[in-house]
Amino acid sequence: MNTTLKRISKVFESAEQISFDDSSNIVLMSDCHRGDGSPGDSFYKNKNIYIAALNHYYKRNYTYIEIGDGDELWENGNFSDILRTHKDVFLLLSKFYNNNRLYFIFGNHDMIKKDKKFVKNNLFPLFKNVKIHEGLILKHKETHDKILLIHGHQADYLNGELWKLSKFLVRHVWRPLESFGVSDPTSTSSNFGKKEVLKKKLTEWVAKEKYMLIAGHTHKPVFPVVGEPPYFNDGSCVYPEGITAIEIKQGEIMLVKWCVKTHENGTLSIGKEIMAGPKKLKYYFNIY
To answer: Which domains does the chain have, with CATH numbers?
Structure first.
């Protein structure tokens, strides 16, 4: 087994399990990259869409699972700046947490959440005793089928094993250059070739280990055809046109997009569109 597959398997072996069944409602989002409200805050433009989506899911008894890069802690050194800018978002997330309906997974851009001291000092005030995971497993109560949830940087050597170097380059080299129109060549989200390589690696793990996997990191949604290795990607919350998410609802899975809709009378509203699915989860479990 190659090094990448071993890293993913290591997460799988140590991941906490969450039980679910065909009556469960779960929504997965990633790559929010909540920032400090400056021009470099990619999340800010979609903040109202995100709040509308979370209110929808909260009222309908969904469990919210954030699978990495929720906060932009490479470009921003102080979490307090992010919290102050997006306090309304964190208060909404705390409502999920207080109802036992919230889980956080860290990604490469918020890898610092591995540090228990950081979590205690910065997150405990709103999320008392919260645990930040590298991976989680959704385990079906009846069939015992498992779905691995990870951010996906485990298959990306530069942003995984060498994350401290990447963080330094982003904060001190590429962020200043972005103001002059120079894009970060190390970024998986803006590099088509890297996205395809990472997809291939994650799909290889799924095909070998025969477990369904949902990740983020690439900012590119993936919803496989039934019969293909069941690797899914929820996309991101920083698209120019809105945010994407994966819903698991009453035994089915689908990819959705939340965006601003225009109406003939000149008004605007925020709504949801189905991008792929819904498909029965059992179709993806049963291929193995």
So the answer is: 3-285 (3.60.21.10)
